[in-house]
Amino acid sequence: MTRYRPTLRQSDVTPKALYLNRRALIAGATGLVGSALLGGGAAHAAYVDMAGGEEPNSFEDISSYNNYYEFGTGKDDPARNAGALTTDPWTIRVEGLVEKPGDYALGDLLEGLPVEERIYRFRCVEAWSMVIPWRGIELRHILERVGVQPSAKYVAFETLVRPEEMPGVRYPVLDWPYREGLRLDEAMHPLTLMATGVYDEDLPNQNGAPIRLVVPWKYGFKSIKSIVTLRLTEEQPKTSWNMSQPGEYGFYSNVNPEVDHPRWSQATERRIGDGLFARRRETLMFNGYAEEVGGLYAGMDLAKNF
Ligand code: MTE
After folding, report:
1. Alpha-carbon distance 33 to 23, whole Å?
2. What is the DSSP letter of 115?
3. Out of 7, 34, 60, 87, which could bridge 210 as a Cys pair, Cβ 3.0 to 4.6 Å?
4. Closest by alpha carbon to 219, among 188, 193, 177, 251?
């Protein structure tokens, strides 16, 4: 486990081959293929495989096939247009039902918090998927730092709106800013990360630099990028896709092969990087994280709360 250092520069970037080797070496040495490798005393933190041993997508796939409508609606628009985004300095406003509200410099908000490196499955609502090695901080540690008031039940998130650097926000594709929300217990779950990097590199802008949410058991659109506001609320927050198309996108957005999107099936997915003629993969309940998070939804009708 490493600690977040605000001034850390990724000068010792690990090439993919080396990184995969390291993973294979560690897995081989411990015989723990596919299970958690916590700590271990390694000088350089090892990625914890939480994707069942599946091969991660390449850095190229992860940073070139994106959804980030502030930079355009095409899959290659974010990689083409997001380079101009200024991500340093970066301030996050923390407000609502918190003990220590304020405008926090990103480095101050994260300083000293434990940094995790984890490989997660990532499933987009459009029925494609990837496997991504993220670096990030558990959101719960950030919430503990700012102090959640007892009456808070939800966390609302908002993305930056900066028309000079974000050509997409000049068009009313969505009602900007991009918004998302989680129930407090979802936000406090240890799987929920605020990601700051992929593959030992700082997040590319197109992936949501300098900090974005990752909730691996939910469709990808819950993973809001380039976050500038965290608000603790008593009421369920509005979310961009639900505001835009309420019949198609609910608040929960849990990956569920049994609840189809009104216009397509959610039972299978296409893995980005698989060949054109490759077999589609079966989508897993809660994207494969049912054991960890299923209990959060006990007794809820998931067809209604989609
Ligand atoms: N966040 C913002 N601010 N704007 C967006 O358009 N798209 C979402 C999500 N977060 C989006 C966003 C969707 S639909 C997906 S699938 C993921 O980002 C894609 O993340 P990736 O490009 O890093 O794979």
Report:
1. 9
2. E
3. 87
4. 251
Nearest to 306 by CA among 286, 292, 289, 281: 286
> 213 with 139: CB under 8 angstroms?
yes
pLDDT tens, position by position, 40-97: 333 345 899 999 999 999 999 999 999 999 999 999 999 999 999 999 999 999 999 9
Residue 225, ligand 1, Cβ within 6 A: yes
Q: Which residue from 59, 68, 253 has its CB within 8 A of the most atoms of ligand 1, so it is best to mutate?
A: 68
Report yes or no on 231 lying in a domain: yes
Dump pLDDT digits (tens) for 117-168.
Answer: 999 999 999 999 999 999 999 999 999 999 999 999 999 999 999 999 999 9
Q: How many angstroms does the Cα of residue 68 sit away from the middle of ligand 1?
A: 5
Range of the domain at 176: 10-297
Helices marked H in the chain — which ranges? 16-30, 59-64, 77-81, 106-110, 139-146, 184-187, 240-244, 290-293
Three-class HEC string of 166-217: CHHHHCCCCCCCCEEEEEHHHHCCCCCEEEEEECCEECCHHHCCCCEEECCC
Q: Is residue 3, in this structure, part of any structural domain at all? A: no
Using only C-alpha atoms, the chain has a radius of gyration, in whole angstroms, of 19
What spacing in Å lies between the alpha carbon of 66 and ligand 1's midpoint?
A: 7
Whether residue 59 lies inside any domain: the answer is yes
92 touches 109 (CB < 8 A): yes
> Within 13 Å, how many C-alpha atoms sit on residue 88's CB side?
11
Atom of ligand 1 nearest to the CA of 208: 23
Count of structural domains, the chain: 1
Q: The domain that contains 79 carries what CATH number?
A: 3.90.420.10
Query: Is 189 touching ligand 1 by the criterion CB < 6 Å?
Result: no
Residue 169 resides in a domain: yes
The reply to whether ligand 1 has any atom less than 6 angstroms from the CB of 67 is yes
